[in-house]
Amino acid sequence: MQLTKTLCGGLMLGLLGGCSLFQSQDKPARPNIILIMADDMGYSDIGCFGGEISTPNLDNLAKHGVRFKQFYNSARCCPTRASLLTGLNPHQTGMGWMTAFDYRQFGYTGELNNNCVTIAEVLKSAGYSSYMAGKWHLTHYDHVTQAGPNNSWPMQRGFEKFYGTLRGSGSFFKPPSLTDGNTLIEAPDTDYYYTDAITDHVVEYMDDHIAAKPEDPFFMYVAYTAPHYPLHAKPEDIAKYRGKYLEGWEKLREQRFDRMKVMGLLPEDTKLSPLSERSYAWDSLTDAQKDEMDKRMAIYAAQVDNMDQNIGRILENLKRQGKLDNTLIFFLSDNGASPEPRSKKDKSLEAMGTEASFESYGAPWANASNTPFRLFKSWIHEGGVITPLIVHWPKHVQPIDKALDTPGSITDIMATCVEVSGAKYPKKYQGEKIPAMVGTSLMPALEGKEFDRGPICWEHEANMGIRDGKWKLVSVSNKEEPYLGKLELYNIEEDRSEMNDLADQNPKKVKELYEKWTNWAEQNHVLPLDGSTYSVKAKKYSR
């Protein structure tokens, strides 16, 4: 059963004020649509959101487009990708958790189900061709074999061409589950880097499409794995950042925080959250340890830098083809930065960043990536669910220097694509009933109009949350029955970094929001929750 827009379909979108951001009141021509997603990238990593990493192409998109300050994903790779492509809550699609296990429960099958449609499937009704390159991560791990079944692979979910990985992570030099169309393949032995290869295929698909169908629009889903671990980057990109992080994560957080306030991304009275309990003082490290940690962050920065270089290649190709002005481009991240611990098995400092290494950058640097917010990927606090969003469409959306306060949800991307394409979202598809879209088109926000899209709700690993207007109720799972920890209440308008828990002062608001969340959970295949740890899930659900 599908909820209406007023109950956890979204949240209040505020008045942008002033003149319209639309250049023309005429109905826009159908644009090409390019959806670019980063993987495990923090809110403050890129330049136009306060970061020191060189991202001139993304910064230029922001300069000539629109940034959203308060745009929310679904906290983890699989749930976000499911919501992004379908416009539904992840549990409605079967992706309430990850692709490793099938819980034998509708919301947690570990695979994109047939009770939803993807953007690629919907846009066919408006004459679009759809292509994808990059990370899929919506197929059960047991089905990532040449024998399949492949009904949940990209080519069976509306994409005409696909090059990328079906599983969630792996080497950037030898990515596992690499697939071309419906065929699993091996990466070349030399001169291969996955971020570059994704872009190679994006450019190839665009060129082939424009040559064959010059008047027809296309949808392109570009799902980079950067900067998801492992820390793998090109030597020349790493060299640009080596030694730049020797002041440590505390100093980096302060510098980013100051820039974000200057940029207007945060209110002046915002407080920088304390260093995460998973972090430790930079000054407690030896010089050798500082050198090692500097290199970890340098490799991470190099991955983001290289992704930006590749986005530049896509933009240059659009310009060359004369298609940039009428191409609607979205850029966002699938969740906040990830706190995976450093490996104890790495061979050497010299090997780090190469194929011989499989490392992460650790919780302290992830804490800095999520400046100024608390917690990380998988949690529902802002550090887990907030993403930078850039929207760029030169022909129809005027640039605005100040980032919009207008909040939004990952489910809104489908609704926006449906509106601008003129596509028809189906009630039934291939014999299956399809729930109504949860999301709301972002176009009214871009036009400067006020509209109410209701609350946004989340659940992942029994971490839960609801954002309703200025209020946010959130909880961290206690991993025991009933899996919900203490309910925390924040006024996000006044407390962006979730520092002042108002639950004890506002028990009626806590009760109201928790009832709304429970209603959503009951109607969207969230319940019953499973707060098991990964090891417990493995024993319970492995086939």
Rg from alpha-carbon coordinates? 22 Å
The coarse silhouette is globular
Structural class by secondary-structure content:
alpha/beta
Low-confidence stretches: 1-7, 9-25
Structure characteristics:
ten-stranded mixed sheet; alpha/beta; four-stranded antiparallel sheet; 543 residues; 27% helix; Alkaline Phosphatase, subunit A
Secondary structure: elements and pairs:
Layout: E1 12-13, E2 32-38, H1 56-63, E3 66-72, H2 77-86, H3 119-123, E4 129-135, E5 161-165, E6 178-180, E7 183-184, H4 194-212, E8 218-223, H5 235-239, H6 249-262, H7 287-320, E9 327-333, H8 363-369, H9 382-385, E10 386-392, E11 408-409, H10 412-421, E12 428-429, E13 432-433, H11 443-446, E14 451-452, E15 456-460, E16 463-468, E17 471-475, E18 488-491, H12 507-523, H13 534-541
Parallel strand pairs: 2-8, 2-9, 3-11, 4-5, 4-8
Antiparallel strand pairs: 1-14, 3-10, 5-6, 6-7, 9-10, 12-13, 15-16, 16-17, 17-18
Helix pairs in contact: 4-7, 6-8
Describe the 3D structure.
The chain is of the alpha/beta class. The protein has one domain (14-421): 3-Layer(aba) Sandwich (Alkaline Phosphatase, subunit A), CATH 3.40.720.10. Helix content is 27%, strand content 15%. The chain contains 13 helices and 18 strands. The protein has helices spanning 56-63, 77-86, 119-123, 194-212, 235-239, 249-262, 287-320, 363-369, 382-385, 412-421, 443-446, 507-523, 534-541; strands at residues 12-13, 32-38, 66-72, 129-135, 161-165, 178-180, 183-184, 218-223, 327-333, 386-392, 408-409, 428-429, 432-433, 451-452, 456-460, 463-468, 471-475, 488-491. The strands form 4 sheets. A 10-stranded mixed beta sheet has the order 7-6-5-4-8-2-9-10-3-11, with helices on both faces. A 4-stranded antiparallel beta sheet has the order 15-16-17-18, with helices on one face. Helix 4 (194-212) packs parallel to helix 7 and helix 6 packs parallel to helix 8. The radius of gyration is 22 Å and the shape is globular.
